[in-house]
Amino acid sequence: MSYFSTKKRIYLDYAAATPLDGRVMKAMRPYFGVEFGNASSVHAEGRMAKRGLEAARAEVAEALSVRSEEIVFTSGATESINLFYKGVIEAAPVDKRHVVTLATEHMATLRVLQDLGCEVTLAPVDKDGLVSVDEVMRAIRPDTVLVTMMYVNNEIGTVLPIAEVGKALAKIKRSTKEVYPLFFSDAVQAACALKLEVTKLGVDGLCLSGSKIYGPKGVGVLFIKKGTPLKAQILGGTQEGGRRAGTENVVGAVGLARALAIAQIEHEDYEKKLRPLQSSLFAGILKIVPQAIINGSRTQRVCSNVNVSLPGVDGEALVMYLDEAGIAASTASSCTSSAGASHVIKALGRSDRLAESSVRFTLGRKSNKSEIKRVLKELPRIIKLLKID
Ligand SMILES: Cc1ncc(COP(=O)(O)O)c(C=O)c1O
Questions:
Q1: For residue range 95-120, what is the model confidence (pLDDT) as tens digits?
Q2: Quick one: pLDDT at residue 117?
Q3: Among residues 114, 166, 173, 208, which one has the fewest Cβ atoms lying within 10 Å of its Cβ?
Q4: Whether residues 249 and 291 fall in one domain
Q5: Measuring from atom 5 of ligand 1, which residue has the nearest CA?
Q6: Residue 49 C-alpha to ligand 1 middle, in angstroms?
Q7: Same structural domain, 55 and 28
Q8: CATH number reported for the structural domain that contains residue 358 in this entry
Q9: Does the beta carbon of 83 lie inside 6 Å of ligand 1?
């Protein structure tokens, strides 16, 4: 198996997981050792841990230009999404049960909304996964409790018009003088590539995950705008301002905060480095397979995502052969990769066959020209092996 081959592996699945940044590890290290205390304890060890936790909260708040009290640490984006959707719907008046979202959202969003039994309107996305502000506004009704749209699509890299929707919603709320519809954005895939100015986005809630920003796994952030009615979902102690009970993951919070601060400071360098690599990977693939279809917007797209459908090629087999050749890519989101053709690609209006022939490469901080060159060198051989028509 190539895991043990001497050839250096090429990792192009940074949307699934990022390695821990050395600077993040350095910030976390004391909290594995001497600063091990429980942040809720009153003694010196507890107070030390509490200081670390609150410094991490302040660092996240600063990176997002929000207040510390608006930051809740969770176990990841899935938990943040569960907490926000369930929490706001349970806290809302009973006649507010309608939600607006998109068919291209992460399964965490779609599954939670399905489970909550709300009436859900899917605002239509175009063939690139984009939605117009007008379409979102058209979907809103007097009983709409929540509008939720991811900032960057994890499968196709499309950047959605969050600030524009936020502005239009603020206008509605100014005229009705209500807090509803609340506006939420899953910004998990945005933090390395884009500046996250939360107040400019006009959201009431936003989530992030440590594992996608060169931070630790198992820790996430939920921003909850001050004044947002929300009922806690994990009950017990009074941690996280009563919004999420349980002993705080101080080391995780410290790591996530450092990772987010670095990601936000370095997002322009990230763009400068990855955009040309993305262009050459797209160009190279189109040269090898001229019928290849780019999934996602060409212009409204983060610099790290390359997603294509290769007609007549089975995406899963391609990913397995690439793996054997030492290259890590994926078919769709890692969370849905065992569930058949991607719901995101299908929502763009592509056939099941085209959805099944998609492959996603996601670039990261360590990606370089020679890696792209090697992918483009391996691809023709593998595609020739797999092509069925
Ligand atoms: C856009 C998006 N939202 C949510 C999640 C879930 O994040 P977590 O694994 O931190 O729960 C992911 C993970 O792949 C994601 O890409």
A1: 999 999 999 999 999 999 999 989 99
A2: 86
A3: 114
A4: no
A5: 77
A6: 27
A7: yes
A8: 3.90.1150.10
A9: no
